[in-house]
Amino acid sequence: MAPVQTLDNNKFVETRFGKQLKPSSKSTTYDDVAENYDGQYRFAPIQEAQVSRAMIKRYFETMYDRAISDVVIVGAGSAGLTCAYHLASTRPDLKITIIEANVAPGGGAWLGGQLMTPMVIRKPADRFLQEICVPYEDEGAYVVVKHAALFTSTLLSRVLAMPNVVMMNATAVEDLIIHEDHAGQQRVAGVVTNWTLVALNHDTQSCMDPNTITCPVVVSATGHDGPMGAFSAKRLVSAGLLKELGNMRGLDMNRSEPAIVNNTREVAPGLIMAGMELSEHDGKNRMGPTFGGMIGSGIKAAHEALRVLDSVNVVEGKVVSTI
Ligand SMILES: Cc1cc2nc3c(=O)[nH]c(=O)nc-3n(C[C@H](O)[C@H](O)[C@H](O)COP(=O)(O)OP(=O)(O)OC[C@H]3O[C@@H](n4cnc5c(N)ncnc54)[C@H](O)[C@@H]3O)c2cc1C
């Protein structure tokens, strides 16, 4: 099994959603502070530099720490977030780093079909809703969450509360690290990142070099083909690791959801693909506005990531041998 960095257990508290960050016990009282809504509300004093340093210190310490991660998840849509939840709650010892290109995480799961609010989820994926405590109406073969945003915001808050998960949003993966491994095989060994605003401006500015994160397993869940979507699937083609994109096929709910879940796998050494990106990679049908496939694929991706981690020896984030 991969050696993992130990996280500080004193910072965790056991909750019904697994281990979560303890609220800070540091608390200073200020006499002139008042929560008074009759015109006398007074905040504790602050210096502008304190605000800057509070953010900079934490953000850059996190970047420094996560330059080597155990798992990087690319894309915080429904598949990527479900994967992160399952991985982080199953293995609180793993450093899981999510890279999301957009400012707002959540991908396409803030609404159901045709911009309507209800979200349909086919059984048995309703079990995941029970696990994260999202209420729904049971319609027999499927369930309906009253607003897709209730699912996405709940899942997002559960994931971000996990002490072993870091999310860097407004940050794009603009390439994959691809090494020749110990057996002479091409292996995805991490991701190349940049601020999304920088990534979008490579044509207008020159020489804006990226950053890297090294890890033994990348889970790519970047969604449909688009300006950013299907990123890793397309990169596998241009890197010569995949002959061509399968391209997403026409809508067939009954064929597509099990196909995405059951085929979620390590598509190249070190790279697991989940969610709708897999439909572009494999040439599978789309399913339209039913989201159980994204949940099942995220959980399967977490299982696959654990399988890979259990099959290799890792030193400083690099796979050095198989077990
Ligand atoms: C043309 C089209 C057709 C659709 N058809 C279907 C359908 O048939 N079935 C269906 O369920 N849904 C469909 N949707 C809606 C939606 O894409 C999915 O419902 C669902 O949100 C997919 O989940 P996902 O987690 O795979 O990807 P998404 O929800 O799309 O999440 C992907 C995330 O990855 C991020 N990302 C992408 N590239 C990068 C990168 N390089 N670096 C970092 N982050 C990145 C994105 O910002 C996004 O947040 C469709 C959407 C479009 C645009």
From TrEMBL:
Keyword flag Cell division: no
Positions carrying 2,3-didehydroalanine (Cys): C207
Enzyme class per UniProt: transferase
Keywords assigned: Cytoplasm, Iron, Metal-binding, NAD, Nucleus, Thiamine biosynthesis, Transferase
Main location (coarse class): cytoplasm
Cofactor binding: number and manner: Binds 1 Fe cation per subunit.
SUPFAM superfamilies: FAD/NAD(P)-binding domain
Subcellular location: Cytoplasm; Nucleus
Binding site for substrate: A79, E100, A101, G108, V173, D209, H224, M276, R286, M287, G288
Function of the protein: Involved in biosynthesis of the thiamine precursor thiazole. Catalyzes the conversion of NAD and glycine to adenosine diphosphate 5-(2-hydroxyethyl)-4-methylthiazole-2-carboxylic acid (ADT), an adenylated thiazole intermediate. The reaction includes an iron-dependent sulfide transfer from a conserved cysteine residue of the protein to a thiazole intermediate. The enzyme can only undergo a single turnover, which suggests it is a suicide enzyme. May have additional roles in adaptation to various stress conditions and in DNA damage tolerance.
Name listed for the protein in its UniProt record: Thiamine thiazole synthase
Organism this protein belongs to: Lentinula lateritia
